[in-house]
Design goal:
Structural class of chain A: alpha/beta
CATH superfamily of the largest domain in chain A: Medium-chain alcohol dehydrogenases, catalytic domain
CATH topology of the largest domain in chain A: Quinone Oxidoreductase, Chain A, domain 1
Largest interface: A-B, 32 and 31 residues
Helix content of chain A: 25-40%
Number of helices of chain A: 11
Oligomer: homodimer
Order of helices and strands of chain A: EEEHEEEEHHEHEHEHEHEHHEHEHE
CATH class of the largest domain in chain A: Alpha Beta
Number of domains of chain A: 2
Shape of chain A: globular
Largest sheet of chain A: 7 strands, mixed
CATH architecture of the largest domain in chain A: Alpha-Beta Complex
Number of strands of chain A: 15
Chain lengths: 337, 337
């Protein structure tokens, strides 16, 4: 009898997410034959991402709320170990959405996984090949519409999406500035990832540094992962005709009350600018071309995957997730079990 | 010797604007010959508009702050009484930006007026032919991009810009809903201006009424003149792919502290929507076509000018302006002297 170790979503967090919201459980794996179309995946690597926090809310708005009593939804890669689906023979390596558990049964009516090309390793699949990189690529290029020479600012710039967005801005010919927390992240951003500049929001006055770095011209494209005060600071330094891409708002996810709205939204009028939200899933048809271009950049060295792989066990999930919200991680945070 | 009666801008309002911010003065009109290109206009009708309040701030962002000690800038119509400019012979009727005074000297290097066609009367010039109507027309159609069948919501809907925006939405085939304050304004909006519905924000819960009126689908285009709570309420009811046009924020103009930002801006992501600001002056090339179409609608009765003409004297300015911010006026507020 095979044991499936699982982290069950036990209660919806009010404010900060923590170990009390999860329950560790060991369940015998059901050994009945799979139903037609179903696939059983042995999970190998998991991505820990800020958006998971929003999926935990009862009113999760663009993603079905994670049900209480179910294992926690997460981006992951793994290998097919049983299959009743000819598209996924046993041994197929897959990436997509599974759950915090050793084995995830993926039902035919909601196939949240796709096969991985042979030349992609399981870690790249969660970094340059994963949802965050696609989010950075498509959000920046399709919504932000940067032109060569534009000044692009990205917040959460040391995170999984942000570190990709700033590099992509650089690659397409923009002056790419990141905002991140702490000297280690900022040094990494400039030295390893090729940012034109990094602003340490924990140590520097963001508004003043933006004014210094972007001058009279201001910010042409702002890719926002954080919301809150930093969004207001950047709105105060927009260029005429600027585009503000709303990708995330990690500074607000753990607020238990009303979110803070950007008081400087009025600058959209002053600067004839727009602020626009998007979800990467709406661009699914563009995924293959986006991946192909990012793989090319990866191969020629212009795009550097930034991340941290924690080799651990399933037991570590709640503690590793916490690192995202404490701002402890640099780049993509991956748990390999 | 001719006396020029003037209202001088005496102090910048902190919060509410009132009589203390202005000083009445009678000044002899300079009878020296005009310099080349200059024009002297005898003002006849004045438009009182919310934006004037923002021009009174030292940090007025998109319009030069009205200088302390100068007569107060205002949209007006009048007649040329002296001219050193061949484009404006004596007797030419003009509309544009002059000042709260009997006679405005318009300098050649900042010709803020233009000649009026012969078939436009001076009141129409400030309503359908004026800046507010152009703002409604161009902001709604060029930024809001309504499609036939869309649900369009306009706040400040009984005001000079709003009453035009809702009617234009109706004319181009949309379900046009207005938000206004008080039963008289709402009745006028539905009975006289042909709104599909009007929400009285002073007596009704806006969020609930929006939910009733727009159902599951939500709001395709929101034309915002007010900001504050109403902006948040509408953001919570956006349709997928919605467009939010930021035109004004009268609820915030008299706030002496930080403006209130829209906490529900996050809905831009959830609904893949955009929020965009604009200034009508950026569309100057489209003014003739916009005016021509509105005059056609005026002639066929589909567009109804909504407004109130106060016959008074120059002495009445501060009190009449106050009516805008007290929500007392219906439609365009015009002072005829």
């Amino acid at each position: 009898m095979t044991i499936n170790r699982q982290w069950i979503f036990a209660s919806r967090p009010q404010g900060m997410v923590g170990p009390a919201n999860f329950e560790y459980r060991e369940t015998p794996l059901n050994d009945a034959p799979l139903q037609t179309g179903d696939v059983l995946v042995r999970n190998k690597t998991f991505s820990l991402i800020p958006a998971q926090r929003t999926w935990m809310n009862a009113d999760s708005a663009y993603f079905p709320p994670i049900p209480i009593g179910a294992a926690v939804s997460a981006p992951a890669t793994g290998e097919v170990v049983q299959s009743a689906n000819p598209r996924f023979p046993v041994g197929t390596r897959v990436s997509g959405l599974t759950r915090w558990e050793d084995y995830s049964l993926i039902k035919a009516d909601r196939l949240t996984i796709s096969p991985l090309p042979a030349d992609i390793d399981l870690l790249d699949a969660l970094s340059v090949f994963g949802g965050n990189a696609l989010t950075a690529y498509l959000g920046l290029l399709k919504i932000g519409e940067p032109k060569p020479g534009d000044t692009v600012v990205v917040s959460g710039a040391a995170g999984s999406t942000g570190s990709m967005a700033v590099q992509i801005a650089r690659i397409v010919g923009c002056k790419a500035i990141g905002i991140a927390g702490g000297p280690a992240k900022c040094r990494h951003a400039v030295e390893d990832l090729g940012f034109a500049a990094a602003i340490d929001y924990k140590a520097e006055p963001v508004a003043e540094r933006l004014a210094e770095l972007t001058g009279e011209h201001g910010v042409d494209v702002y890719f926002d992962n954080v919301g809150g005060q930093i969004l207001d600071d950047v709105l105060a330094h927009l260029a005429f005709g600027a585009r503000v891409v709303i990708c995330g708002a990690i500074s607000q996810y753990e607020s238990s009350g009303t979110w803070r709205g950007p008081a400087n939204y009025w600058q959209l009028l002053v600067k004839r600018a727009r602020m626009e939200g998007f979800l990467v899933l709406d661009f699914a048809k563009k995924f293959p071309a986006a991946r192909a271009e990012m793989l090319k950049w990866l191969a020629d060295g212009s795009l550097v995957p930034s991340g941290e792989v924690v080799d651990g066990s399933l037991e570590d999930f709640p503690a590793v997730l916490r690192r995202i919200f404490d701002g402890a991680n640099i780049g993509k945070l991956i748990l390999r079990i």
